[in-house]
Amino acid sequence: MSTESEHLSKLDSNAKHRYLEKISFINHVDPYLLKDTDFSDNIDSYPNVTYPDIVNYFLFAPSPLTKDQLKAYKALDSYNQFVSGWVINAGVKLFEKYVLIHGRVKHSQKMNDVPLHPWIILEKSGNIVCAHCNCMAGLGESCSHVGAVLFHIECAVKIRSSKTCTDEKAYWLLPSSKKIEFKPVSDIDFTSPKSLQCNLNNKVHGIIYDK
After folding, report:
1. Which of 81, 90, 112, 130 has a 20 to 30 Å separation from 178 between CA atoms?
2. Among candidate residues 6, 147, 148, 137, the one with its CA nearest the CA of residue 65
3. Are 106 and 88 within 8 A, CB to CB?
4. Contact 5/30 with Cβ under 8 angstroms?
5. Segments in 130-211 forming alpha helices (H)
6. How does pLDDT run across 105-132, given as a tens digit for each residue?
């Protein structure tokens, strides 16, 4: 098997250096050389990501380009992508000290194109170390696709800590939509992301506190 992914081979020298620096946390394993089957979908293996972890990363982590704080306020809006079902799936791969999360996320403009493929390296505590995506803004490590996957993980962790009335974790609450279908206008759900967010928050909150 090649030790350099096609994605890595197309990066310029500076971007390649940063990419290699990032994957050094996971024994120099290139996530783009891994298959989906190399990842587990066991949510019990997810790191304990919280909302403050996500905010701290997008606002205060050093930019890979300028070394200043990222201050990627817009990336926090990626919660809308998560609640709208743009995250098709997510998987986890454990390393000795770190956790690799990858996901498949829909494009914002071309929804039926090949999904984008962000990945994130985290400490097991939930602290976010670095990220990458094969979208046009992926080198900045703070694109909306990374954010959507992080919010997916954060919501799954909330649900993991709770039980439903049947003593089973309600992972069915996690939004997902694998394919966009053409429908008559009368059949289209025009629920706004804000309303979807409110509905999801209410359901998760109800599960956590309805003991």
Report:
1. 130
2. 137
3. yes
4. yes
5. 144-160, 193-209
6. 998 766 678 999 999 999 999 999 999 9
